[in-house]
Fold this protein.
Amino acid sequence: MQEDVYKTITEATEEVLFKDKNSKFFGYAFPVSSEDEIKELLEEIKKKHYNARHWCYAWQLGTESIQYRANDDGEPNNSAGMPIYGQIQSFEVTNLLIIVVRYFGGVKLGVPGLINAYRTAAQMAMEVANIEERTIDFQYKISFEYKDMNNVMRVIKEKNLTVISQTLEMSCEILIAVRKTEAEACEQAFVPFYEVTLKRIL
């Protein structure tokens, strides 16, 4: 895989269902960008399935530095969260939350059965997901005086930089996104214009 691309899903998936010995496992995958968003989605699913026995999940955030969490929610240790997280790893995706909701059917599945059920429900959720490859982008704030506008705009055009927002008054600010592998060349392009400052913000 190229060093400046990552994979994620474009939208929340349809609910999937895996059954084993009367237990039902509902699987969901969501694109996420923060832990706050993850908490909100968990609350939503718990409200929707308020009669369920377990709401197990795993998530991963980040492209350069990875954060992740796997939660068994009362199931035996590592029988739910880690099998779900294993699917995030095997599909090589990030910025993603997978929740598997379990309704107990009266028959114990044992740890191997639970691992298989949670892994399968997570895999089914990922199989219906729309996975997209995206570039890892850095964001920069360019600050300059109005008189340097032409130079700045020329570099933006030559380097084909993405403008996110701009404030063009006597003193100007432009927010740009640059693909990771092109970031250094972009920084170098602004070096000759010593009155133009480029600051990486993301």
